[in-house]
């Protein structure tokens, strides 16, 4: 079964410091991976995705993610955190079999950036 | 270009009543997905629809839940005889195509409370 794991329920970082939100996946073959952010009482906003090509993917708001096939990881990163980055972050994988297009989400990681 | 629209944003129902949740996809998108987010959990896929067709309903409970996406008008998620366990946030997403690589864009969600 395909699955996504976000091992940290919460990540705390000081403003201006680099941040990493971890994601590992379990799929057969080459995965399609996504990161979304959710602000309180809002829907999910797309940040970035990995389909193929360069392992380092750049996305919205200065975020980037690195695809590592050997470690089956797709960690989200940002060089310098902002207080406004505080939110709930979801990693997701798109199943490869069939053409359903559905996303399988991790449990989410709350990012807390302190001034 | 308006994003994905969902209404109502908040819905309160008593046990045994019916809940109808509406989703209008982004302009030009003909693929709609419904997800449910229970408190303290990630999003779980429910159903994937194209115009007038259900493509994948593998995440939909077998009883009381139904979904449609008519030729004209919004997609509707219908929950009959609601129970307290149905209380959750229901999110709709849309994409231009149904490919695994397509980005899904999410609406703000409908928060259902069952008394």
How would you portray this structure in words?
The complex is a heterodimer of chains A (115) and B (115). Chain A has no helices and 12 strands. In chain A, the strands form 3 sheets. In chain A, strands 2, 5, 6, 10, 11 and 12 form a 6-stranded mixed beta sheet that branches. In chain A, strands 3-9-8-7 form a 4-stranded antiparallel beta sheet, with no helix packed on it. With 115 residues, chain A is an all-beta fold. Chain B is mainly β. Chain B contains no helices and 11 strands. In chain B, the strands form 2 sheets. In chain B, strands 2, 4, 5, 6, 9, 10 and 11 form a 7-stranded mixed beta sheet that branches. Chain B is globular, with a radius of gyration of 13 Å. The mean pLDDT of chain B is 92. At the A-B interface, β5, β6 and β11 of A face β4, β5, β9 and β10 of B.
Topology, pairings included?
The complex is a heterodimer of chains A (115) and B (115).
Chain A: E1 3-5, E2 10-14, E3 19-21, E4 24-26, E5 32-38, E6 44-50, E7 56-58, E8 64-68, E9 73-78, E10 87-94, E11 104-105, E12 109-114
Parallel strand pairs in A: 2-12
Antiparallel strand pairs in A: 1-4, 3-9, 5-6, 5-10, 7-8, 8-9, 10-11, 10-12
Chain B: E1 5-7, E2 10-13, E3 19-24, E4 31-37, E5 43-50, E6 53-56, E7 65-68, E8 75-79, E9 88-95, E10 105-106, E11 110-114
Parallel strand pairs in B: 2-11
Antiparallel strand pairs in B: 1-3, 3-8, 4-5, 4-9, 5-6, 7-8, 9-10, 9-11
């Amino acid at each position: 079964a395909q699955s996504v794991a976000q091992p940290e329920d919460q990540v705390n970082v000081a403003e201006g410091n680099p941040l990493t939100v971890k994601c590992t996946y379990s799929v057969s073959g080459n995965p399609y991976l996504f990161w979304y952010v959710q602000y309180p009482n809002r829907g999910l906003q797309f940040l970035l995705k990995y389909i193929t090509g360069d392992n380092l993917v750049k996305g919205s708001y200065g975020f980037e993610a690195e695809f590592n096939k050997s470690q089956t990881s797709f960690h989200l990163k940002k060089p310098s955190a902002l207080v406004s980055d505080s939110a709930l972050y979801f990693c997701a994988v798109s199943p490869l079999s069939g053409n359903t297009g559905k996303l399988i989400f991790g449990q989410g990681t709350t990012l807390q950036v302190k001034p | 270009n308006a994003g994905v629209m969902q209404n109502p944003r908040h819905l309160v129902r008593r046990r045994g009543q019916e809940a109808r949740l509406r989703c209008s996809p982004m302009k030009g998108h003909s693929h709609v997905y419904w997800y449910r987010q229970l408190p303290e959990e990630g999003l779980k896929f429910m159903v994937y629809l194209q115009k007038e067709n259900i493509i994948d309903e593998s995440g939909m409970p077998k009883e009381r839940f139904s979904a449609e996406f008519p030729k004209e008008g919004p997609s509707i998620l219908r929950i009959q005889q609601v129970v307290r366990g149905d209380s959750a946030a229901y999110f709709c997403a849309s994409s231009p195509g149904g490919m695994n690589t397509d980005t899904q864009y999410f609406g703000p969600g409908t928060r259902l409370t069952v008394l």
